[in-house]
Design goal:
Protein name: Cbb3-type cytochrome c oxidase subunit 3
Strand content: under 5%
Number of strands: 0
Keywords: Membrane, Transmembrane, Transmembrane helix
Helix content: 55-70%
Radius of gyration: 19 Å
Number of helices: 2
Largest sheet: none
Distance between the termini: 65 Å
Structural class: mainly alpha
Length: about 45
């Protein structure tokens, strides 16, 4: 395996990790945290 194949593998793995993080964040796990700035604003 040459350096170019290693670079390609690292790029593909990095892209997969990035897409995984984006999907994880969009699944609604942070809904409670998103509402924190609005706590105590009841009028």
């Amino acid at each position: 395996m040459g350096i170019n194949e290693l670079r390609i593998a690292v790029t593909v793995v990095s892209l997969a990790v990035f897409v995984g993080i984006v999907v994880w964040a969009w699944r609604g796990r942070f809904e409670a945290a998103a509402q924190l700035p609005f706590e105590g604003d009841e009028q």
